[in-house]
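For reproducibility, we list the full input for the beta-D-galactopyranose complex.
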Amino acid sequence: MPNRLVNGEVWTDEQGEPIHAHGGHMLWYKGFYYWYGEDRRAENYVSCYRSADLFHWEFRSHILTVNTQTEPIRVRTDLRLSNEDGSKINLERPKVLYNELTRKFVLWAHYENGKDYRAAACAIATSDRPDEGFVYHGSFNPYGYMSRDCTLFQDDNGSAYFISAARDNADLHVYRLADDYLNVDRLIRKLWQGEYREAPAVFKRNGRYYMLSSFCTGWAPNQGKYAVADSMEGDWSLLHDFGDETTYDTQPAFVLKLSENEFLYVSDRWNAQEYDRSGYVILPIHFEAEKPVLRPFEHIQLEATTGVIHFQL
Ligand code: GAL
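The corresponding predicted structure, in tokenized form, follows.
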């Protein structure tokens, strides 16, 4: 892949193959960004790529497929990675954190049965390595709640949070995870009752927490919103507009922190007719005082000698 990316296109890996990592997440680990995301082709569910510069991506492996090894970690989780009739399930919006205590890479995703969206569950997998060897631990409803679009956020002290849409997407729940990240430990908040927020993405800047989200309109883009909090366990602000009325034809996947002052909004530009041809859009988040602002740029350019990323109209 060249040192220039066109926003909205299907980007390719070092082999020239399309990158299948939608609704995804990135983890910085030992010199590489690991990019995890949905891969709906053939027997795949989640694939992993890695890059040192965010431009040149090496395909690592299909980390969750219909054939992934399964292992229960508690009773009454559903371990099936395909349906009884042989059809595929759905694993959406996979996110991965590294747990310092257990030295495991822990993945959370949104589970559905692939036929309808009634299961509304979360699913967990773990591995000793960032890019292969994942074991699937099954899906469940946290405290019995519905759980759809989701994200993970790891705070500086290692506390981690799972945020997911509940009550048919009407409310957004914030759960604190257990120390091993393998279960929810506490339901912290039920945010924005009846506002139908989806595609949550959390980041921390100058000690404040920001949450981006979309409205609930399936594959069609809509007005992004953001909210701010002084603590992950405290009160969140009201929702304020972020980007334009279609968030520049995107839906949030996650926010990547490059440094204390540089944050990238990483998103999907869905192709509702041909899912595999959905594109990626990365935009810088500007701050006007404390307010996060998104502006559209067509190209992203890597300055190869310095690693600096430029955005161009
Ligand atoms: C979106 C959601 C996506 C996917 C899609 C299916 O609202 O954010 O992750 O579930 O609906 O229609």
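The mean pLDDT is 97. Residues 4-312 form a domain with the Tachylectin-2; Chain A fold (CATH 2.115.10.20). Both points were considered when choosing residues for closer inspection.
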